[in-house]
Amino acid sequence: MLYLTNDLGLLPFFLPLGIVGFYRYLWYFIKLMAWAIYKPVRPKLNPTYRPEQDVTIIVPTIDAGEEFKIAAKSWLACGPKEIIIITETKMLGPLQELANEVDPIRIRVLTVSKANKRLQMVAGVNATTTELLVFADDDAIWKPTMLDYILACFEDLKMGGVGTCQTVHAVDPSGYQTVWEVLAGFRLSIRNIEVAASTHLDGGVCCLSGRTAAYRTLILKDPAFQYGFQNDLWLGKYPLNSGDDKFLTRWMVTHGWNTFVQVCPEAELYSTFKNNWRFIKQVLRWTRNTWRSDFRSLFTERVIWHRHPYVAFTMVDKIFNPLTLLSGPVLVLIFAIKQNTQVGHTNAPLPIWNVLLSYITWLLLTRGLKLLPHLIQRPRDVIHLPAWLLFNYYFAVMKVYALFTLHEVGWGTRAGVGTTLAADITKEDNNRIMNDKMEAAPPHVELDVTPLERAHTRRLS
């Protein structure tokens, strides 16, 4: 390096790279220190809330399989009052059979007319009778201590939402993880550090992940929340049905509720991920949701700036992250070419392969250090560091692509899901009910339509 820096003509290439590198590693060091200092909320000996009295678990799903049984048994081991499964009408039979196999008493299966996650979630909220509810994915596997640690946070009367930390559960029964699952595990390890850091520094979080998140029921039964949640449009015309966890998190921030993420072994959940290339589609959907939600938080709602300034800064950092990430290899490549073609160079030029190999080795080393908390737990994953390095640069390009395709609102991994507003489906159902009553009613007989039905139909119209 001293040899290279002796040539002041290369300063324009090394100075920007050095500044960017210094900023990135300083920023990561701050997060790492905050993560190290962070402390989870421990349950009280005499807690205010108890799972068997105060918790309902809501699971919106359309295609739960055998992994649902494993997940459901782990939820029941935490002792909730009830589990409500919300699915579309045609899946009632298969899901009822699964529920009956696990626990026909504490698991209820309800239906909505069409597959729409937000519609399913609202139906579950309205069926809840407990003070607290927990949304869970149908493959989220909990530890027996999960609910105790979630409920501990609600001792704070201003606590509105609580999230958890996560790790990957292999699809393969043998425990073998494909490279795609390992990449997902790397992402989760970094996310666990980031959410612990932001929770410690200013009490905020970018997103309470929908894989498992708890809320006060009264917040989600608010008609204003349900209307906004089911009529969520991007740019006033693109219906959003994925990104529900982002909406919920922003609602907590803008309406004065506190949030917290429990990052500790007792509150860690296991979740399956796509174990093939379809993982890329999942990441693309999440990335679009992040762009949309962060833009709204930063530039439309703007409450995040004074409530959680650290989180706001992380959102701004993510906007420029693709540029800073891609700047490194671009500058190194320019240097490698330039110093081999420069006339009158005072030192013998280094071969291009030497420069590139040195840079790649440095990247692998630094990426490995960033993933050290993960690699301590799963040292065998170190062989996937080259794939992680490639994925990072692919992800940077994907973020730019996602930015210019925010109008794409489909689910990505489920054809035809996520392109209709939940409120529109409810409106269709109400209209069908009204038409059925009209056809069934005798001539000159007033229809038996309740004031609530009339008000609901009028509001959605």
UniProtKB/TrEMBL annotation:
Keywords: Glycoprotein, Glycosyltransferase, Membrane, Transferase, Transmembrane, Transmembrane helix. The chain crosses the membrane at residues 12-30, 319-337, 349-365, 385-404. GO terms for molecular function: glycosyltransferase activity. It comes from the Eukaryota. CDD domains: GT2_HAS (cd06434). It is found in: Membrane. InterPro entries: Glycosyltrans_GT2/GT47 (IPR052427), Nucleotide-diphossugar_trans (IPR029044). One of its GO terms (cellular component) is membrane. PANTHER family: EXOSTOSIN-LIKE 2, SYNTHASE CPS1, PUTATIVE (AFU_ORTHOLOGUE AFUA_7G02500)-RELATED. This is Glycosyltransferase family 2 protein. It comes from Phycomyces blakesleeanus (strain ATCC 8743b / DSM 1359 / FGSC 10004 / NBRC 33097 / NRRL 1555). The lineage of its organism: Eukaryota, Fungi, Fungi incertae sedis, Mucoromycota, Mucoromycotina.
